[in-house]
Design a protein that fits this description.
elongated; 2 helices; about 200 residues
Length: about 200
């Protein structure tokens, strides 16, 4: 289906099969797409401000430059999705799966990513300032040149993560974060084994 630029403001699309649909630049502000099949959907440049996509399947979806400000993506599956330069500021994304996804240069300031899975994701130049990443899995993720200032990283997994040239000032960590596993950047620099020491080195 082709619904480019469609006005679906506050539409209710609960458990709807929209897999493969083209919704580029569509207006979905406040729409409900909970538990919907959105595999391979194209939502590039779409406005999803305040939309609910909780528990939806967005595997291989395209959301480049989409506006997802304050959207609810809790428990959604975004495996291998493309969200480069998208705006997810203030979004609820807890326990969502972004395995091997691309969020390069995306804005996730003040987003709730508690328990989210971002292993292997491309997070190059992402802005996670003020976000909550408690218990999130960022193992093997690319966080080069990322901004994590003021981020809650308690019990997060950063094993094999690349944090070169990233900014993590004022972060919240706890003893044992990372399980003592060094990031690639710290291995290369021969840095400390303990995440608390790594945090001090960056602040």
């Amino acid at each position: 289906a082709t619904l480019s630029r469609a006005n679906l403001t506050k539409a209710t699309l609960y458990k709807t099969d929209m897999s493969g649909a083209y919704l580029g630049r569509a207006d979905l502000r406040g729409a409900t797409l909970r538990e919907s099949d959105l595999r391979k959907v194209n939502l590039g440049h779409a406005n999803l401000t305040g939309a609910t996509l909780r528990e939806s399947n967005l595997t291989d979806a395209t959301l480049g430059r989409a506006d997802l400000t304050e959207a609810d993506l809790g428990c959604a599956n975004l495996t291998k999705a493309t969200l480069q330069e998208s705006n997810l500021s203030e979004a609820v994304i807890e326990q969502a799966v972004f395995r091997d996804s691309t969020l390069e240069r995306a804005d996730l300031t003040n987003a709730n990513l508690c328990g989210a899975v971002l292993c292997g994701a491309n997070l190059h130049s992402i802005d996670l300032s003020g976000a909550s990443l408690e218990k999130a899995d960022l193992s093997d993720a690319d966080l080069r040149d990322a901004r994590l200032d003021g981020t809650d990283l308690r019990n997060a997994d950063f094993s094999e993560c690349d944090l070169r040239e990233s900014s993590i000032r004022g972060i919240t960590v706890n003893q044992g974060t990372q399980g003592g596993v060094q990031t690639r950047a710290e291995k290369a620099a021969g840095g400390a084994e303990d995440w608390d020491a790594i945090a001090r080195a960056y602040t």
